[in-house]
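Quick note —
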Amino acid sequence: MVGNVLMETDLGAVLPLVTRGKVRDLYEVDDSTLLFVTTDRISAYDVIMGNGIPNKGSLLCLMTTHWIKILSEAIPGLQTHFITLDLPSQIPTNAREQYQSRCMQVRKLEIFKIEAIVRGYITGSAWSSYNKDGTVCGIKIPPGLRESEAFPQGPLYTPSTKAEQGAHDENIHPDKAAEIVGAKYARSIEELALSLYKHAAAFAYKRGIIIADTKFEFGLDKETDQVVLVDEVLTPDSSRFWPADTYTVGEAQSSFDKQHLRDWLVGQGLKGKEGVEIPDEVVAKTAEKYREASSTIVQYTSTHIFHTAHGQTFEEEEKLDEKEEIEIARQMIGAHEERRDDDQQEL
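Predicted structure written out below.
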């Protein structure tokens, strides 16, 4: 921990380390359970930066948990890997404060070797590909679209390979995805990814955010043969969030994600370079964007309800600092877990 930035976890003395990803470190809790620890590391163009973003891990973890709650209510029968935000008993007392709110216990599953990307608007690499040959991931797109315009046929499923650490993901046609995971699972993944995106996009738009595109990952529950939603869900790391009130077709959009960092890297000629140290002003701006996304999606629906129930005014809510907001969101999600457990006991 450097200041309030957690770049690397150190739980190997109490839990076996399974792997370190770009942002998350995974530990084994028991034969059927993993601990996902979301650090403050940040990557861009598949490269991890030399320094991180303060409190980013807590915000991403709580956003993921919040979206799982929302989507589980919207899509009956949705299976996810999430178990609880509670820390496992093996975590020592002197480490619990550091790891609280940035960890979730999840089911151990077989992970499909593709990433399920859904694009509602033409931007980024999709816009570049479209300008080159009129296609996105090998899918023919009608002519005449402008940058940042919604796809006229509706959201587009454009999977990619799931590269190993240090390698680059590759956009592929859905037919290629079916070759990798099998036709039956590919169909289920595509249908579920599109359904998740549509529900999430409608939810976010009512709160002033356009989800331009996002990436989902899925695993397989071998006992039930069901496709399960895993990993992070609809965070600024895995999605492009645009403010709806400034959205303008025909140009690039401002965003609530790490686009500011990407733009800085490109402008400095550092795209794809290893070990880049992000300057303080870029760290601050990126942190601000993450907080804006979290406060709009999570606090809009959790914090306001919490304060209303406790008789606080809007002005009093505004005085909360970031740590208080994170704790309130955690409490609200915890309360949801308790209600869910009660409901299951009644069935």
